[in-house]
Amino acid sequence: MRFAPHTDEDTREMLAACGLSSVEDLFAHVPPAVRLGRDLDLPPALSEPDLLADLRALAGRNRHADDFVCFAGGGAYDHYVPAVVWALAGRSEFATSYTPYQPELSQGVLQALFEYQSMVCDLTGLEVSNASLYDGPTALVEAVRMACAATGRRRVLVSGTLDPRYLEVLRTYAAGGAFEPVSVPVEEGVTAVPEVGEEVAALVLQHPNFFGNLEPAAERFALAARAGARAVQVFDPLSLGVLTSPGELGADIAVAEGQPLGNHLSYGGPYLGVLAARARDVRRMPGRIVGETVDVEGRRGYVLTLQAREQHIRRERATSNICTNQTLMAVAAAVYLAWLGPEGLAEVGRLCLAKARYAAERLTEVGAVELAWPGAPFFKEFAVVTEAEPRAVRDALLERGFLVGPPVELPDGRRGLLVSVTERRTRDEVDRLVKAFEEVAAAGGKGSRAGRGRGGRRAGGRGR
Amino acid sequence: MRFAPHTDEDTREMLAACGLSSVEDLFAHVPPAVRLGRDLDLPPALSEPDLLADLRALAGRNRHADDFVCFAGGGAYDHYVPAVVWALAGRSEFATSYTPYQPELSQGVLQALFEYQSMVCDLTGLEVSNASLYDGPTALVEAVRMACAATGRRRVLVSGTLDPRYLEVLRTYAAGGAFEPVSVPVEEGVTAVPEVGEEVAALVLQHPNFFGNLEPAAERFALAARAGARAVQVFDPLSLGVLTSPGELGADIAVAEGQPLGNHLSYGGPYLGVLAARARDVRRMPGRIVGETVDVEGRRGYVLTLQAREQHIRRERATSNICTNQTLMAVAAAVYLAWLGPEGLAEVGRLCLAKARYAAERLTEVGAVELAWPGAPFFKEFAVVTEAEPRAVRDALLERGFLVGPPVELPDGRRGLLVSVTERRTRDEVDRLVKAFEEVAAAGGKGSRAGRGRGGRRAGGRGR
Amino acid sequence: MTGAPVRRDGPPLPGTLRELSRPGRRAWSLPELDVPPAQVPEGHRRPAPPRLPEVAERDLVRHYTRLAQMNYGVDTGFYPLGSCSMKYNPKAAEAAAALPGFQRLHPHQPEDTVQGALELLWRLERALCELTGMARVTFQPPAGASGELTGLLIMRAYHAKNGDPRRRVIIPDSAHGTNPASVTLAGYRVAQVPSDARGLVDLGELEKMVDEDVAGLMLTNPNTLGLFEEEIEAIARAVHRVGGLLYYDGANLNAIVGRVRPGDMGFDIVHLNTHKTFATPHGGGGPGAGPVAVSERLERFLPAPVLAYDEERGRYYWDHDRPDAIGRVHGFHGNFGVLVRAYAYVFGLGRDGLTDVGARAVLNANYLAERVRGAYPLAFPGRPMHEFVATARRFRRFGVRALDVAKRLIDLGFHPPTVYFPLIVEEALMVEPTETESRETLDAFAQAMLQVAREAEEDPELLRQAPRTTPVRRLDEARAARELKLRW
Amino acid sequence: MTGAPVRRDGPPLPGTLRELSRPGRRAWSLPELDVPPAQVPEGHRRPAPPRLPEVAERDLVRHYTRLAQMNYGVDTGFYPLGSCSMKYNPKAAEAAAALPGFQRLHPHQPEDTVQGALELLWRLERALCELTGMARVTFQPPAGASGELTGLLIMRAYHAKNGDPRRRVIIPDSAHGTNPASVTLAGYRVAQVPSDARGLVDLGELEKMVDEDVAGLMLTNPNTLGLFEEEIEAIARAVHRVGGLLYYDGANLNAIVGRVRPGDMGFDIVHLNTHKTFATPHGGGGPGAGPVAVSERLERFLPAPVLAYDEERGRYYWDHDRPDAIGRVHGFHGNFGVLVRAYAYVFGLGRDGLTDVGARAVLNANYLAERVRGAYPLAFPGRPMHEFVATARRFRRFGVRALDVAKRLIDLGFHPPTVYFPLIVEEALMVEPTETESRETLDAFAQAMLQVAREAEEDPELLRQAPRTTPVRRLDEARAARELKLRW
Ligand SMILES: Cc1ncc(COP(=O)(O)O)c(C=O)c1O
Ligand SMILES: Cc1ncc(COP(=O)(O)O)c(C=O)c1O
Known about the structure:
- The complex is a heterotetramer, with two copies of chain A and two copies of chain C.
- By secondary structure, chain A is α/β, with parallel strands linked by helices.
- Chain A has helices at about 10-15, 50-60, 85-90, 90-95, 105-125, 135-150, 165-175, 215-225, 245-250, 310-315, 325-365, 390-400, 425-440, 455-460; strands spanning about 70, 130, 155-160, 180-185, 185, 190, 200-205, 230-235, 255, 275, 290-295, 300-305, 370, 380-385, 400-405, 405-410, 415-420.
- Chain C is of the alpha/beta class.
- In chain C, the strands form three sheets. In chain C, strands 1-7-6-5-4-2-3 form a seven-stranded mixed beta sheet, with helices on both faces. In chain C, strands 10-12-11 form a three-stranded antiparallel beta sheet, covered by helices on one side. Chain C has a two-stranded antiparallel ribbon with strand order 8-9.
- In chain C, strand 2, helix 7 and strand 3 form a beta-alpha-beta unit.
- The radius of gyration of chain C is 25 Å and the shape is globular.
- Chains B and C meet through helix 1, helix 2, helix 3, helix 4 and helix 5 of B and helix 2, helix 3, helix 4, helix 5 and helix 6 of C.
- The structure holds pyridoxal-5'-phosphate (2 copies).
- One pyridoxal-5'-phosphate (PLP) binds near residues 84, 176, 178, 249 and 251 of chain D.
- One pyridoxal-5'-phosphate binds near residues 143, 176, 220 and 251 of chain D.
């Protein structure tokens, strides 16, 4: 493939216009010592048909979420992505534009982002949102930085029920020295009562938590408030049609992995980091923020605002170093949220809740597995404890056409698997999952190759 | 799913505005006797996720051209469809618009069609083109009607090398009595010298013909010209980078199946009928024609023109009854032709020619099959004669991952298969096809279930 | 401000691809030749390839993106084009049609490898039979007009079979142009029955016209005036009495789908326009699909092959053994890709949703008619169904025509209604809102129509000068037809 | 005509979704509840769902279609935004990324089920190592700035490992804002080295600044002025002499890719911006991807997990056993979907095509600079590489600023260059045409720039009043920041 449109004549004449005779003259001032001086050790160009055949072959060597029934969770979920979402967010005027530095040419993406911010505020019950961050875990890092900046403190209490990936990322960025994560123990699958001292910048809680359990968030956040610390919640955007909003719970800053909002699984990215906060912290927020204003003729319009916070102005004193964010994913999230509306959001919540509950009950009824915390309330995801090694069980189930997981280590050392059930899963799929669990348990966690990858399809009936 | 946006309140108030109280009142004047008076015997509504799961399941019960290596032809071909074609032709402003009755709001599709017409003229060496017809065979019917109208004659000589589907369609419409197809015999796989009398309206020749062979078109058309009959050629648009154009050959009207021009196989439709002719016949052409003009400020613009030919004006005396055509496919064809340009078109031709030649030679070398007419020149498609029943051979090859065909009856009663080789096919795929042919021949045309549908994939290497 | 052209700035109108073309530039990308090269056979070589445009892929993308943005579609706004049913086209249907399992099927694949596609057609056929009250369906016709001709050839085959060839087919004077055109192509003569003062078929006149030479009657119901033919039973009796057949032009079925079935009204042959009843996108002129459904007695004449199901083997197949078939009317199986979208609408909406289509379409048309009739009197008194025909006659005295009203509506941001059809109505404005438009849209459009009515009196020049906000303004159609420029 | 606003007609600006919302209207369509309903657990119920918009699917489609048409992208026109490399984004890459075999992969799938995805990353890593002259790559960073911080944390881990923590990182005063911001977040202090009269790092000053407290130097080469740092070898020596590391900001690698490798210039850490070098679409602000490549001695510090290949079993897997790793910098494996597109560009262009990227990018920039430098003097004398920085200083005396030039270019149909960056250039206009633009586009843009230069003298108000052809005109940014309205 070739996308440079220059004909030989163009090249000759353009060089001539520059007073040069060969393309190499353009690089004459590059010191010889640093030049490669040989051809790249790469394959020659592929034609478009060959390239796509190559990529189709690679894609064909993967099994994807239509090849099995997906009960996997742990931060990424097989929620339904309506056809309209990418038919619109994927329009090339959005996809091929840059950050809207010239607002008059970018009202489309600016208004879309303003509406995204508005819906995130509606969703969280908080006052301000930015135009997206990289993903959930990096959004948490930014939230913690905001809390430190707001309180002038460094200590960050992090619940033991936080997704370990979030904790890892937090620890990585803590190396910069701006904050210091300290872990809060777990009791009965939820965050124990923490000691929130005057030196604490933030209390970080995930609710629903990594194990799927619902946290006593309001009570915990109250302790943070009393100590003048920021209450930071990691939330599930699709739970907020039925569950109390972060704002109601007393969260000062709420962050989420935005993937469930109309974004594809895509092996972990591109997703988006959602961040909302209270108005008092708006000047400490990271990243792009879109604001409404008027033009010289009084027409309503939108611009990037509060840019004095950002790296291109504030440089080493910026609230964050983020520049490119995940705008297109935020546009998709906005289309998706507007597609749902209040009733659809509530319905997704009801479906997840009921189907997850059904799955948990059936699994325990047949005694295929044990719930990690029987009776503990959860939303769409729950942890089960397996006799056999969780990875082995996971693989055996996958041979039967069901993906569960990820495998998890429970706070008390027990080991198990996460099972999550989205609105897409049918009763029939759940019943077949339960059967598979029984078989695997019977086989002592070992799976047979029988029907590898077909189970989900074979009995499928819904083409998965 | 539901797309009517009416809330209950809307319905109530709108009815009230009409002085009505229920939706049924709107139908009060419909005689009871003709009302259904019961619920439709159809399933209840499906949600979008359920509907797409249902459709994915149906699609999953098909094997498609990425599941096997496609050497099938007979009027539809697995040419490469560049990604850019439908990324552009599929844009919703094109896809969701109607026939451009209001040119000021439809300059996009009008200019696209004007450019399509222009490229069809470039391609065929003829002077005028319309904005598309339904498909190849129906385009031939329209061409024959044009010839009859132009000559005031009814008799239509049709070569025995014409695709039988075209002949069937021609016969169907002949029932209207406007013309009478008479068949011209075949010699050595090409059209015999026809008797073209003064009563003949048209001589119809397919070149390259149904069996893939190149016809002595110029000589035959000369006879038509001498008798004052119209010379009508059915052509392959992708052959015209290397083969003499219809205009050069003396065709007065040229028609083609436009599928190879960037349109998907799609189980036979939607495709498009291409029709080009000489200027003298422009007022006899069927369907939409776009013309260039200027607006009141002298700006260049495009409109539907010569509408006096059409059904909505001329009614029972219209040149055709066509109204809706295949515009979107014509737009795709235009993008594709411009993507190729002169060099790309020539290259496609060279690739098809060389790869088809290679396949024919290898097949005969190994003696797996016999060519129907050894030594006869062809373009991208050729006929082979099989010992075993052609359908059996076709099925056995498919079990090995190769689709050939369709099975054909040769003019002399022999039976065989068409094999066509597009620019997409690789030497490796051809070599494996040859091997499969050998195996099948050895097995006496019977196939084993072994490797059903995998052959193409297994050895594939290019993800097919 | 009247008449003053809007000063245009910004990017100029796009040039043609020919103007963008530069020798040696290219977008194409094709596999390497991996076999020995081959000479073009003796005497067949084209001296030089055709002079197609030479552009880069980026040129193509910008060109067609610009063109698309210069095109108005349902996705950009309200499109009340009468008789065209420009309703919203669901994106889910597009996703379905794009599945490789449908999009990459070769039409010559053996039946065993396309069972999913055949089952889809089978289910869709059953549904269309239920909706029309007919026995069987052919999916071959790629559009409505093609369906008409197919139906008329079936009519012809039927009479021929009975050894009683006939010569005339009756159509109302309000019929769509494709009806008479199809009648001629089927080898029949058109006999036109006038409309009465109500805009309905003049039953008395019809009674006089029918005789043993009448092969049949073609009727659209609701008719092209948007009115329901209330005497349909009597009409059917009259035609059947003389042994004629009734052909139903399904272009307006969307008004009554699920409530009234052509079969129950006495029709023998029915065509549907999937882009009208079932929301398949019209693509700027096509593709469509015009499935034809027939009653039991006409089944044998359907184009071959006909879809069949083998109970024992639980397998679908194409039945080619149809001695009385009229023959093929399409090269393959019709516009399959369009039928996939129609399937999505039929089964997505389901039992109640389909019945609701008519209810909402008729409600919208009646509400809109009510809002504007003061300024735009209806051509006929009867209750409109899914569309209404109004007249701009009264603006004549200000030197304003229906076309001027249409063009001014463009400046107000709307696609105009159909103008000058049906031909029997002076200065006709034919408005079809469809079921997928909201009350807010109808109110905004009504307001625009009323504004234009006022402007027609106060500032008629404003209408005659419209449109002024489009990339080009009024185009010289006479010149286009006179100085034919049909290619670069 | 000066200043006179263009009279606007046609459709009004789109309202917000909130304004379109009507109680009870809906677009959503979800499966039926097919299991027993469940109560929301005690004390967790939200009293009422959030007040999201209530609209029909058709409302959504028209709303976002309108918004898209109000957005300028590479697909709509020339986009010479300096430092952003807005080149053409191939459609084939979009098709590849949309394959279910990539798009529908769950990040927690076991490695055996994603071998194709891992092989893609493996091949891409090998290619990036060849292009940068580095040993290994992490794909976790989702954008350039994230790559910077990742690189700096690796730098930090390296010095810590050597038991010699350091406090300062040197960056040029011309550096992009993300550089100093990342330095701070990594826990270092910024030491700024001035540019000399040539716009290059002042080597003398640098020599004075380097000492044992310097952890490293961040450099963009070609630098943000579009100039090649010719003394790079000496710069590298100076930093290495004191034990510091060299960080390469790869935002401008597209100028020299295939010709000069950061590793061969002495860099130890490199980040790439796939949307700049490899044409992945920028999505109106993102997503990007910022893979970080490091030399052998830093490999052990890369974020875990690291991609690995098991020769025997011919199997790719994630190696989590990395004791010295700095830890995760992204929740999963980075922006995989973006990397698929980058793969398409790298292997589609191949060996020679990649080297050609720089040649064409630099040729275009030099040609364009040549065409306009008369009116817009270059900020520095040296030969520009892939972009050039000019100044609009001389228009000051007409009361015209760089911003006014930019806005006027909009009225002439072009997206303006970057303005006011780099900060060290007064009234900076930073122009980057990229390799995918044609000479015709450059000529047209040059003409527009020259016209604006003339207008700046003859009719400065025209510039100050621009733009006048856009849906909205100049917006009040001060007011936006003062009366914060960040949501409906
Ligand atoms: C009443 C009527 N009949 C027939 C047709 C022709 O249908 P098609 O355009 O699909 O051929 C139309 C199309 O507008 C119509 O409105
Ligand atoms: C020189 C330079 N460095 C770093 C960055 C930051 O990259 P990103 O926006 O991908 O975070 C940019 C982006 O414009 C840049 O131009």
